[in-house]
Design goal:
This protein is an alpha+beta fold. The protein has a single domain, classed as Alpha-Beta Complex (Nucleoside Triphosphate Pyrophosphohydrolase). Helices cover 17% and strands 30% of the residues. It is globular.
C-alpha cells in the first residue's frame, strides 16, 4: 500500500474578527467534546487542474456553507501526512496512502449565522465553534497532529483581532 499516491488537498484556517479559528466536529464521529480527533479544520480534495485558492473557497462553501471569507495567507509549502496502516485502503476511498495539503489562512467576513453546516447534501460536520489557534494540536487525530502543530506555529500571526 505504500506505493499509493498522496491525495492533493487544501485546508482552511478560518479566523474570526477576534482571532479565533473555526473548528468543526465530524458528523461520522461519536458526539462529545472530549472525543479525540472528532474536531478538525475544514479541508477537502483538490480537483485536477483546480487552483488551490479557488479550491479552499469552494471547500468552505461546501463544508460550512459560507463564501464570506478572504484569503489572508498561505503556507509556503505543501504539508504531507500518511494514514495509519489500519486506514490505508479504507479511508480516502482506498485510493491514497495519505494527503499532501496546501493550507490557507482566511479571515471570516460574515456573521456566525452565515455558517451553515447543512448547506451541502453530504453534511460532513454536525457542530462547530471558535477556538484559540493554540488548541489545534490537542484536537487533532495523532496522524494529523504534526500538521496542526505547524499551523499553530506558522499561522499565529493571523490569530489576532482584526
Amino acid at each position: 500500500m505504500s506505493d499509493l499516491p498522496l491525495r492533493p488537498n487544501v485546508g482552511a484556517c478560518l479566523f474570526n474578527r477576534q482571532g479565533l479559528v473555526l473548528i468543526a466536529r465530524r458528523a461520522d464521529q461519536p458526539a462529545g467534546e472530549a472525543t479525540s480527533g472528532a474536531w478538525q479544520l475544514p479541508q477537502g480534495g483538490l480537483d485536477p487542474g483546480e487552483d488551490p485558492e479557488a479550491a479552499v473557497l469552494r471547500e468552505l462553501s461546501e463544508e460550512i456553507g459560507t463564501t464570506k471569507a478572504r484569503v489572508i495567507g498561505r503556507m509556503d509549502e505543501w504539508l504531507d501526512y500518511d494514514l495509519p496502516a489500519h486506514l490505508i485502503g479504507r479511508a480516502l476511498g482506498g485510493k491514497f496512502r495519505g494527503q499532501t495539503q496546501m493550507w490557507f489562512a482566511l479571515r471570516f467576513m460574515g456573521e456566525d449565522s452565515d455558517i451553515r453546516l447543512d448547506a451541502d447534501a453530504h453534511q460532513e460536520f454536525d457542530a462547530w465553534r471558535w477556538a484559540p489557534l493554540t488548541e489545534l494540536p490537542a484536537i487533532a487525530v495523532p496522524f494529523r497532529r504534526p500538521i496542526y502543530e505547524r499551523l499553530a506555529q506558522d499561522f499565529a500571526r493571523y490569530a489576532v483581532a482584526g
